[in-house]
Design a protein that fits this description.
The structure holds two protein chains of two kinds. By secondary structure, chain A is an all-alpha fold. Helix content of chain A is 79%, strand content 0%. Chain B is 65% helix and 1% strand. The chains are: A mainly alpha, B mainly alpha.
Chain lengths: 210, 694
């Protein structure tokens, strides 16, 4: 059978060390990229709605009263670091490092993801105490339509980390699981990408134009 | 959201029979008859399945199957059931207006429910599942693959589409559906004006079927990009597959706006958000933009696959290579791109500047250019071909003539100044039915007649097929041509009553047309019945009854579960036609390999049931049940990911036995000329038409 090319999809490929897994991963990873593209359209539209609704504050609290940039800074650091750690898990997989290294970096990523969620929920509670609830205005509806949607994606990513971690313990590094690790890593980087959009448009844009 | 007992807001008054007891009138009788049909239909299906002891085979061979061919057939069966309901609703609406000036026999609310369900059903639960049922069946066969890229995801897509469609059926029996039209514009559909369950049925049916459709789009894009047989370069793809790629790309980009809009409307209704409300900064124009950002590409994701079907039909029944393949590919892609640039023409009158309207008007007119290219290509394909007027061809010819009229009325509407005059009139209704019936539905019916022998191994009855073509065509003309005229005379769409007596004669013509369309629907059912009864006379097991040109005709009818015993090597466009010309069709391979096929799984069916109950719980505010279903859906999906044996192997020896038995059949069958195409002589082995070759 013809050897698969070293790179069959964008991103970190499994490569020659895992010939059969690499070949099995090609189609499904391409499909996952297409899914991410569709998901990105979701977020793109929510960003557009947020932009059109920045002024729709209806006399309620606006970005200046509600946004806490210190907390956002901390969340950004945590999420960017988690992208690094999930990348380290991928490298451990690609270069055949011991399996505990993958599971270890998964655990670190999970802790970071969960702490991001804790901080985010703390922010929402603080906002609500200042009257910043989604029922207050169109602007706040748009905010709560977008930022928690990202949070929900992070939560889904955390659940995925847990399930995949268990599966790695139970089944070992099968071709199928390797391909799932590749996709989880892509998904996690995607969360980071969206977050960059959120700090730029929701927080900085909100503070500038709101 | 306060009144939430154990059964949420469910109580005895939500059943239509309660209305009949309280106020017995025609309106309630119609509502109860509709609910009765659903209940009797369910009981009849359950009864028949039990009587013939078919639950086991149904479960093993169909509901748990991950075979793209079976999933395709299930999609089509579902679409035809929903089509029957949609057509009947159309007839009731025409009858209401034919009853003359005044209030007719239906109440305003009921009439509004009818046009809302009619539109929602016809777009989301007839056109989409029918288009993707056909695509499911054909795409892997046409590109020389053994299944789609993600067979289990395919099953899940079907499950979600069906459960969402079932919500529309449930809404007939429990509570009522939305009165907000298939577009469900807020603020009318918001909680302030519409506190009932109607818009909630719409929202969840749209969200869940939208997820199913998105997954389907991803599946088919990946299938065509990655699973083509060796040598099947992009410019060797059958035209139909090109249209499915563009349709899939449209889905991937156009379904998210619909999901976003529907979920935002849900947030407004359930959680008191202010996306589209009149107060506190809500802005319903965001909804209009989001909805049509989906809605316009939707039109093309339905009609492009029909163009693909016509391309195959015209080529085969003219016994010619498709004329202008390259220009058709380019035109298809142009339409796909342009379809994202025209959404605003659905609301020219909603307050944009003249400049913006002009830009979108011009973009809309531009679409006529690639579409015109296609029409000329199809006519050139027919030109000097060896034409047979079989049923698919007749649908195709009806399409060519009627669709041009529909397209031209679209160009008229694309002019904002004209649109101001006729918007919200029946002129518009006539226009889009003129595009969707001859465009999409005729194409799908042509596909049904054309590929039926591939799927079941025998041809459909020609006579009843012709009857249905005539009924659909004449019925369409009589129903919708009068609507152009009353539209120009100013009759508004979606109104249950009118006072201008000059509209009445047109309405009488339209109801006659609607009844003829009903005969068209019935003749399709009669055709199926007669064809099954006479199937011994029309068997074509060799697999090529029409002298087909593409790979799906090079295998047995019905195809084996693995489609191709040996994956074909593609060297040309219209590979099978070329192989027949060269006398290289039906090769006997030297060796066979084991074939791994996806194993049956119940995950699609499980998610279908769970998501159905989940939607019902959300509509009726039964929060504990909704939460339970969410947990169960997640749990069953995660449990499924713990499976390790996704495939079962069909041994090479078995493949060899089946394939060689079929090759023997090929050798022992008499090839038939095109003159005997519709006679019992035609066992599915075509004699190449020498005249057409020269």
């Amino acid at each position: 059978m013809k050897r698969a090319p070293t790179h069959s999809y964008p991103g970190l490929n499994l490569g020659r060390r895992h010939e059969s897994a690499h070949r099995a991963t090609e189609v499904v990873t391409f499909g996952f990229w297409v899914f991410l593209m569709s998901d990105l359209v979701y977020f793109g539209l929510m960003f557009a709605i947020y932009i059109t609704m920045i002024d729709a504050q209806a006399g309620g609290p606006g970005p200046h009263e509600l946004f806490d940039l210190y907390s956002i800074f901390a969340q950004t650091l945590i999420l960017l670091t988690s992208s690094l750690t999930v990348g380290l898990a991928m490298l451990a997989l690609k270069y055949n490092l011991p399996r505990w290294r993958i599971v270890f970096w998964f655990c670190v990523t999970l802790v970071l993801g969960l702490s991001f969620l804790v901080l985010e929920i703390r922010d929402f509670i603080a906002m609500a105490e200042k009257g910043g609830i989604p029922q207050r205005s169109g602007f706040l509806s748009a905010f709560y339509g977008l930022v928690p949607l990202h949070g929900l994606h992070v939560a889904a990513g955390c659940l995925w980390l847990i399930v995949l971690g268990i599966q790695l313990r139970v089944f070992g590094l099968t071709d199928l699981l390797m391909s799932r690790v590749v996709r989880l890593a892509l998904f996690w980087h995607f969360l980071d990408l969206i977050w960059i959009g959120i700090i730029t448009i929701v927080y900085f844009g909100g503070l500038t134009y709101g | 959201m306060t009144d939430t007992g154990f059964f949420g807001r469910l109580n005895w008054d939500v059943f239509p029979i309660a209305g009949l007891i309280q106020t017995p009138n025609t309106n309630e009788i119609v509502a109860n008859a509709a609910a009765g049909i659903v209940v009797v239909g369910v009981i009849a299906v359950v009864g028949l399945l039990s009587w013939f002891r078919l639950w086991g085979p149904l479960w093993r061979d169909w509901l748990t199957s991950a075979d793209h061919k079976k999933i395709g057939i299930m999609y089509i069966v579902f679409a035809i059931v929903m089509l029957a309901r949609g057509v009947l609703e159309g007839v009731v609406m025409r009858a209401q207006q034919a009853a003359g000036p005044g209030d007719g026999f239906l109440e305003a609310e009921h009439f509004a429910e009818l046009f809302s369900t009619h539109g929602t059903i016809m777009v989301f639960f007839v056109a989409v599942p029918f288009v993707f049922g056909v695509a499911n069946y054909l795409v892997p066969l046409m590109i020389g693959a053994r299944d789609v890229a993600f067979p289990v995801m395919n099953q899940i897509s079907l499950g979600l589409t069906v459960s969402a469609g079932m919500m529309l059926m449930v809404s007939l029996v429990v509570g009522n559906f939305s009165t907000g039209g298939w577009t469900a514009y807020p603020p009318y559909t918001g909680a302030a004006f519409n506190p009932g369950v109607g818009p909630d049925y719409w929202i969840w049916a749209i969200v869940v079927s939208g997820i199913g459709t998105t997954l389907t789009g991803i599946n088919f894009a990946v299938t065509i990009y990655k699973l083509r047989a060796p040598g099947m370069k992009f410019m060797r793809l059958p035209m139909y597959c090109w249209t499915i790629i563009s349709s899939s790309i449209l889905i991937i980009f156009a379904m998210p706006p619909l999901g976003v809009a529907a979920l935002m409307l849900a947030a407004d209704r359930y959680l008191d958000f202010h996306f589209f409300t009149n107060d506190l900064g809500g802005n319903m124009m965001n909804y209009a933009n989001l909805f049509w950002l989906f809605g316009h590409p939707e039109v093309y994701l339905l009609v492009l696959p029909a163009y693909g079907i016509y391309s195959e039909v015209f080529a085969t029944f003219s016994a010619k290579r498709l004329y202008g393949y390259n220009s058709l590919v380019i035109a298809t892609m142009c339409i796909a791109v342009l379809s994202f640039t025209v959404w605003l023409h659905h609301f020219f009158t909603m307050g944009q500047s003249a400049l913006i309207n002009a830009v979108f008007g011009i973009a809309t007119m531009l679409i006529a250019v690639p579409t015109g290219v296609k029409v000329y290509d199809w006519m050139a394909t027919l030109y000097r071909g060896r034409i047979r007027f079989s049923v698919p061809m007749l649908y195709g010819l009806a399409f060519l003539m009627l669709f041009v009229i529909g397209g031209l009325s679209g160009v008229i509407l694309a002019n904002p100044t004209v649109d101001y005059q006729v918007h919200n009139t029946l002129f518009l209704v006539a226009h889009f039915h003129n595009a969707l019936l001859p465009g999409v539905l005729f194409g799908l019916l042509a596909a049904y007649n054309y590929w039926f022998p591939k799927a079941f191994g025998f041809r459909l009855n020609e006579f009843w097929g012709r009857v249905s073509v005539v009924c659909w065509t004449v019925g369409f003309l009589l129903t919708f041509m009068p609507l152009y005229f009353v539209g120009l005379m100013g009759m508004p769409r979606r109104s249950f009553s009118y006072s201008d007596a000059s509209f009445h004669p047109y309405m009488l013509v339209a109801i006659i047309g609607a009844l003829i369309i009903t005969c068209g629907l019935l003749s399709i059912l009669v055709q199926l019945w007669v064809s099954i009864r006479d199937r011994e006379k029309t068997r074509a097991p060799v697999g090529d009854p029409w002298d087909g040109r593409t790979l799906e005709w090079s295998i047995p009818s019905p195809p084996p579960p693995y489609n191709f015993a040996i994956i074909p090597q593609v060297t040309d466009r219209d590979n099978f036609a070329v192989a027949k010309e060269r006398g290289e069709a039906y090769p006997s391979p030297d060796t066979y390999e084991d074939i791994a096929m996806p194993r049956n799984t119940a995950i699609g069916f499980t998610l279908c049931v769970l998501s159905g109950v989940w939607m019902f719980a959300l509509v009726w505010w039964i929060w504990w049940l909704a939460a339970l279903m969410t947990v169960l859906m997640l749990a069953s999906f995660i449990a499924w990911t713990f499976k390790t044996d996704f495939e079962e192997v069909i041994p090479a020896e078995e493949v060899r036995k089946q394939h060689e038995a079929w090759l023997d059949l090929v050798r022992n069958s008499k090839p038939v000329d095109r003159d005997y195409e519709t006679t019992p002589e035609n066992r599915g082995l075509a004699r190449p038409d020498l005249e057409a070759l020269t």
